[in-house]
Amino acid sequence: MTAKKVAVVGGGLGGLAAAALLARGGCSVTLFERSKSLGGRGQTSEVDGFKFNLGPRALAVAGAGMRVLGRLGVKPQGSVPGQKGGTYALRAGRLHTLPRGPVSLLTSDLLGLAGKLELARFLGGMPRVDADALEDVSMKEWLDTRVSSDEVREVAGALVRVASYCADLEVLSAQAAVRQLQQALKANVLYVDEGWGSLVANVATVAREAGVRVELSAKVERVVVKDGQVVGLRMGDGTVHAVDAVVVAGAPGDVAAMLPGDEVLEQQAAAATPVRAATLELGLSRLPKPQALFALGIDGPWYASVHSAYAKLGPEGGAMVHVMKYLTEADGPTSEAELESVMDTLQPGWREVLVAKRFRPSLVVTHLLPTAKAGGLSGRPTPEVPHVGGLFRVGDWVGDEGMLVDASFASAEAVEHALLRRGQHAEPLRMAVGA
């Protein structure tokens, strides 16, 4: 049988992974990217020798991203943070040793003895928690029943923030939060050498080698549907590409824009609450305090990490530092000075060695907050659009596995399974004219 013609709209990591997997499975794949370069939010730019990602980025070692990259033969280079010490908890403007294991837990002055024992029990019991039983329970509600001490609850909440990038624990599903925390405690994360642009380049190479045709600066107007089935892709210049399936890799609004007037997709886009963060990226000629590599806010939603201590992200001797404030939907504008104050505590004197800086007051971290009200990860839209045959979606807001980039990779893999399985075991897609 002639190979299915598949169009992938969007050249971020999720779109590239979907294109590569489908091409390897025998589909004829064309990827359309509206900008001049691939990568989307995974792009890395170089400023004065420093590699700037779009905010602090890390790959979960036990996550779907590493699984799919492994299937594609891509092995990210870098290191796991926290192995050199220098990790702190930030509370009331002071640095305390962050409890990361038995020794640091005993020596930290962050908690009293009773608090240390309760935190040890909480963390020790995490692997045994059935996260899927907590879909419709908020993380705050679950913590209130699981932890009795306010100070331990603060530490647990901080660990959830750093694992999920979500600060609104009152609405975040405990299922999603617990899964992220279990994954982080199991195997930590990887900071990637040369930035996430290196991942984009490697996956793009795999896709091209698999036969994917890549079209850059390609404006897609909409998906063409006939009798409830995808039959084509209309471009901005009016031309139509006959296809059997379309995979849209982007935000909820990007999917809705492909089918103007589709009430279901428009409602999903309107209901999706994005998760945001304020970020400050700093390239320093050196670290004023070489031993201070990480700080996690306990009484505030703060994060600061010297990514270059574990990944190649700058010139020899230089330091690439990320500072972030996890935002809730109710938060107002965040000032650059707020994030600078965190650096003043972790790395006093950093201004004297500043080489490059970038501040983003409201960066989209993920396009949909998995809420308890919506049923957690199971409440997210499925990779296959049920009411439009041959239409699929990929993104950090799609499917019931993972958060952040893991969800993008997992949904790409789910699209691969759905399309290739359908071709082998179920009624085949209606083939495009000329296929």
TrEMBL record:
Domain of life: Bacteria
A Pfam family hit: Amino_oxidase
Residues covered by the Amine oxidase domain: 13-270
Protein name: FAD-dependent oxidoreductase
Provenance organism: Myxococcus landrumensis
